[in-house]
Amino acid sequence: MNSEFQLLRDTWRNGYNGVTCENPGQALQDVIANWRRTVTDPVTSVILIASILLTGISGPFGTHGALSLSMRFVFWGGALVSALVLGAFIFFLFHLKILNGRKVEAEIASTSAFIILFGGLMLGWMLLFANFAHDTAYQVVWWQVLFEVAVITLTLMAIRIFVVRTVLEKAGASDAKLEGGAVVPLATGFVPRLMRRLPEGEKSPILWLTSENHFVEIHTKKGSVRVRMRLTDAIGEMEGVEGSCVHRSHWVAYSAIQSGRKVGGYWRLTLINGETVPVSRKYQPLLEEAGILSRLAIA
Fold first, then answer.
1. pLDDT > 70: what percent of the chain?
2. pTM
3. Which of 215, 214, 174, 176 is nearest to 195 (CA)?
4. Cα dihedral angle (296, 254, 89, 105), rounded to 10 degrees?
5. Structural domain range at position 110
């Protein structure tokens, strides 16, 4: 799997899991790091160059007759590079910071923001190049530009989601096999990458993660294992398992939650192994959105 699909796959999953428990500043760092990684990815560069060559030669949307070959390359080169840089930043900004943990809302918001911002940018870009048009009858209609940007963006979004979900299904099937052929089934059908860090005799469904200094305590049905790594990285390796941060130092798999009760206005979750985990007010909305707290209240 190339790094572009790996990044999209991880973002789709980790956005749901909530990968930034430790400190708010880390979210923006993750946005910038993922954005830089996307725009500099070799596969992305090849696709971008191929797209510029294709659109420059074919001249879609009336640019073939209106602009010379060299001007078409400049026009479509600027448009496609801007789309990549702006689109990647908006995508990760909403998925990893503004609406982290709410992937559907993040998908809708990021797509809408891109259509508005890039549509305006494209409109200005076309008005600028209209001055170089050979065809004096060539005109830029603003609503038509925005409509075409919206249609293309929504089409590409649908294709991307389809491809990512296809990758998820394939990854889920391959991740179900661990080294040595041992299979540890999970409620979600996925065996997360973090499982591979556990000793052979300790491999068991992971219930929750706890951070302490530079270490993460991985709690399973068989016990706990201490690993030197960041909590954000550990959560990233829990891809495919539904869960979320419940506290700045705790991440819990939803399938591990057995019951819960309020103590002094704060929820405390009881897991299937009998351990209890506190829930802070900051992360309570994630559990509410997932329907966990409403289920516990009824129970």
1. 78
2. 0.57
3. 176
4. -40
5. 3-175
Strand partners, 271: 257
User: Please, are residues 99 and 108 in contact by the beta-carbon 8 Å criterion?
Assistant: no
pLDDT tens, residue by residue, 73-118: 999 999 999 999 999 999 888 877 787 667 788 889 999 999 999 9
What pLDDT shows up at residue 233? 83
Q: Other CB atoms closer than 10 Å to residue 81's CB: what's the count?
A: 14
Residues 44, 143, single domain; the answer is yes
Please list, in sequence order, all residues whose beta carbon lies within 8 angstroms of the beta carbon of residue 77, skipping any fewer than 6 positions away.
52, 56
Q: Which of 246, 193, 194, 213 is nearest to 21 (CA)?
A: 246
Maximum alpha-carbon separation in the chain = 77
Q: Are residues 40 and 135 in the same domain?
A: yes
Helices (H), 141-192: 142-175
**CA end-to-end span of the chain:** 43
Q: How many residues does the chain have?
A: 299
d(CA 69, CA 59): 8
The verdict on 118 and 242 lying in the same domain is no
Instruction: Please give, one letter per residue, the 3-state secondary structure of 178-223.
Output: CHHHCCCCCCCCCCCHHHHHCCHHHCCCEEEEEEECCEEEEEECCE
The pLDDT of residue 3 is 42
